[in-house]
Design goal:
Distance between the termini: 25 Å
Order of helices and strands: EHHEEEEEEHEEHEHEEHEEEH
CATH class of the largest domain: Alpha Beta
Strand content: 25-35%
Radius of gyration: 22 Å
CATH topology of the largest domain: Alpha-Beta Plaits
Shape: elongated
Oligomer: single chain
Amino acid sequence: MRLRLDKFLANKAFGSRKEVHALIKQGLVTVDSVVATKKDMAIQIPEQIIAVNGEVVDNRQQYYVKFNKPAGYVCAVEDNRHPTVMELLPPEFLTMGVVPVGRLDKDTEGLLLLSNDGVWAHRIINGKKHISKLYYIEYTGELTETGLERIKEGIVLGDGTVCKPANLELLEPGKAQITIEEGKYHQVKRMIGAAGGEVTYLKRLSVGPLTLRGIENLGDFTYLSEEDVEKL
């Protein structure tokens, strides 16, 4: 991929074009270990190695990320009322167009995928590939036998929302795991509510074959391997 040096660095969140030009003018930018002197220099990515102040710049253009989302953050690029997950991630994610793939509620924790590959993201969230999502639930109240059967068979919520059959496993009183293939608005909370309970804690443990392995702490993130990307 052929890019202008200043555009590449601006996209990588090294500042505005003006700030990037200043870095180049100060001799702080190198291309293949040679000091760059022209802001509009054409570079070839990923073949050439770009460094700023001696630190090599990650030259990836496509981003596939898994993130352990804490509660209290909304899955949006920007929000006027609440902090967003993007505030917890490197600034280059914003400048490179990386966005959440689907959503987790503000008070829900766990596995969130992000990417700037729109085709890949759409494939995951459109529901046609039947990608399972596993959640851990803590709840109050008592789930009725009728409610449990409705969830397993495909529950219809009070507003007419039709949910596909889901696998609900009771772990111990007040704790369960549920596997769904959709991501409708407040779906897990509403399904549990319709069965007689009220969710007090919700955490997504996996999306398809991808889990929280390697990002066990809240706020951790890592890049997916090519193999992981292809799995979805």
